[in-house]
Structures are given as structure tokens and as C-alpha cells.
Amino acid sequence: MKIELQTSRQKLLSFIKRSITLLAHFGLAAILVLAPSMNVAQAQSQSVPIIRDAEIEQLLYDYTTPIFKAAGIKNKIQIIIVNDQSFNAFVDGQRMFVNIGALMQAETPNEIIGVIAHETGHLANGHQQRLREQIKRAQTMAVIGMLLGIGAGVAGATTGNSAAAGAGGGIAAGSNEIAMRTLLNYQRSEEAAADRAAVNYLNATGQSTKGMLITFERFSSALALSGAKVDPYRVSHPLPRERIAALETLAKQSPYYDKKDSPELQLRHDMARAKIAAYTDHFTELRRMFKDNPRGLPARYGEAILAVESGSPKNAVEKVKDLIKDEPKNPYFLELLGDALIKANDPAGAANAYKRSAELDPRGSSLLRVSYGHALLLTNDPKNVPLAITEIRAGIAKEPEFAAGYGYLALAYGRSGQVALADLATADMHYYSGNRMQARIFATRAQQKLARGSAEWLRAQDILNTTQLKK
Q1: What does the CA dihedral 269, 275, 277, 282 come to, rounded to 10 degrees?
Q2: CATH number of the domain within which 382 lies
Q3: Angle, nearest 10°, between helix axes 162-204 and 240-252?
Q4: How far apart are CA 299 and CA 278, in angstroms?
Q5: What whole-number distance in Å separates Cα of residue 415 and Cα of residue 382?
Q6: pLDDT, the chain, mean
């Protein structure tokens, strides 16, 4: 009996551990249901594979601005491009994440704008905050059920009633299932609300709702082709066919349903798709996208990028210059020319291309300013170092969390003999890359050489304070 009771206790301890683990994962999974293939917590710790590109960031900015205005969102929402091939987008309350797979698969701007409008519905209605409250409530339900089950299990094990002990485990496991289904039901209602909000935003901005339906049709076809049998009560989103049925009537009532994207916007969208396909080595997909116009600007853009990445430098430069003949004021063609000239070992020419690109860029992207500064450093001309520092610092000033920019700034300060500032920039680079230990090491080194109480000394102290190791 003693051995049997010990075995029952061991089972109970094992069950408790499993339940706690389930709760931990349950809470995390509930947070991540907006993005089944991505992890918001990972994104917050900068472990999501992020893509930075001035052209695509500008395009997404132009897509989101009127939608955010229609939704009454006044806070600055950061748009982040995720290097993931799946068709997905999600939000975390302060940021919107868009997968490159969504951009590449969406054949029209309207399709991706519909996705953005849906995610904006989550942001505008505070779904993330309410989701956290629902998670806490669901966890409470699961914990209470688990404790009731454990109590029944202990009583059964103590009295030697194996049936009661087994029932206790069933109560606890059942409470987890009920909590999960309750939470997922809540989320399905929030998804439906975001869909309705998206239609309102698209109508308010005079844009078609057709793209949303096309996207849901894509999901429905993918689900049908997979042959998967889905329990509708164990998913966080309404099934695609249900969403189509719910939205079709509402969407087709829009006076803008048949409105098409402007040719200018469609061209920009195609250029972004070509760029993504080329940089991700999807040569076959690039050809398929533009098979009807193989010598059009997007197709040639993709080919030029492929040449810069893997072709001969001389040929790449010629291909990019051919593009610039068509659009001499396109800042992103000039940026690509800078990339090609770097590969061709012409940093001075690259610096001029990046400079012109930064001057023409409508948003004044920090990426282009930093690229200009980096090219100046690559000339190995000491006279260019002060200007390189100025340009890189200007880029960082606009985007203070630009980790790679601090790396170039550290190099520039090192070239100019400003060792303390080089150490501080290196500390910032590690800090914004999430490497707390290295950030502390370089902040300590910088502080030892900086004037106590100066702005730079205080910045080093901030890094030390925020990276202090907990006992």
C-alpha cells in the first residue's frame, strides 16, 4: 500500500508538472494565435528574422497610412517585414508584422491592403489588451480545475480509491480543454470583428474590399488541398469558408468593390514582389510572376538584383544603369547601383549613388544615410571620415534602435581615433542586438574613458543600468 500510494503521489507530481507546463505553453500559444507561424515574444527579443528595405518599408507606409487614419490610430505603429515565406501578418499592440510571403503572393496592392486593414482592426479595438485579460481568465479557470482535480486525486489515492484518483486527473485535464476552447471562441469573435472593421476602413478610404475575399479564397483552397480535417472549436480564426460567407454580402455592398488599384501603385507593388523574389533566390517564381511582360520594369529589376547578388559586377552595373535610364530619379535604383558599385570595388562611385538615393528618398530612410556613410568609409580616405560620421549619426538619429548603424558608427569613430565613442557605439550595437553581456563590457570600457556626467557617459550608464544581471 505504501508503494502504491507513493506511485500515486509520483503520478500526481508528474501531472502537476505537466499541467503547469501546459499552462505556460497555453498562455504563450494564446498570445501567438494571430500568427501561427511566428512568435511575437521572439519578435520582441529581436530573434524573428527581420528584413530591412527602404523601398518596401516606404510601400507599406503608404499602404498603412490612410487605413490608420480611418481607424483613428494616432500612435506611431512600426511596420516590420518578416523573412517568412508563409502568407501571414500579425500585430502585437505597438507593431505590425508583415511576412515577405504575403507581399510576394499578393498579386495586387488591394490584397495586402485588405490584410493590413484586418490587422488594423485588432489594433484600433484594443484586441491585444483584451486578449491578455482573457488569457488570465482562461488560466484561472484552468488552475482552479487543476487544483480541484488534484484534490480529488489526492483523496482517491489516500483512500485507495483508484477510480476517484483517475477522475481527479480527468477533472484537471478537462478544465484545460474547457479553458482553451473558451479562449479560442473569444478569439474567433475578435477575428470576425476585425474583418468587419476592415471593411469599414476600406470603404472610408475608397478602396475595394475584393482583395480581402481573394485572400480568404486562397486560404480556403490551401486548406482544401491539404486534406486536413479541422476541429472548428480548436482554432483561433473562423474557417476560411465561414469568413467568406460572412463577409461576401457585406463586401459586395461596398460602392468601391470593383475599383482597381492605380497603375502607379500596381507597378510599385510589382517592383517589391520582384525584389523579394530576387533576393530570396526565387528565380523561377520571378519568371512566373512576369511571364506576360518579361521585359517590363519589374522583371528587369529582379534580373538586375540577381546580377548584383550573384552575377559579374560589370554586368550588374550595366543592368542597373539601364534601369536608371528609364527612371533617373528612382531612389531605389540608385541604391541598387550603389550596391553594384560596392561589388565592383568602386566605393567612391557607390558613395555618390547612395548620396543621390538618400536625397531622392521621400521618407529620408535611415538605411540610405547609413549606406552612404559606410561607402565613404570604404573609400579609405581619411578626409571622408568626418562626413561618414555625420551621415551615419543622422541615420541613427531617425532610428535610434538601428543596431547595424551603430556598428558602422563604431568603425568610423575608430578610424578617427575616438576610441571611447567607438566603444560606446559598439555597446549600443550589442544592446540593440540583444547581446546584454557584450553591451555591458563595451559600456564599461567606454565609461572609463569618457568625462563623468557627459551625455555619452550617461548613455553608457543607462546601458549598464538596463543590462544589470539579476541574482
Answers
A1: 150
A2: 1.25.40.10
A3: 30
A4: 10
A5: 8
A6: 78
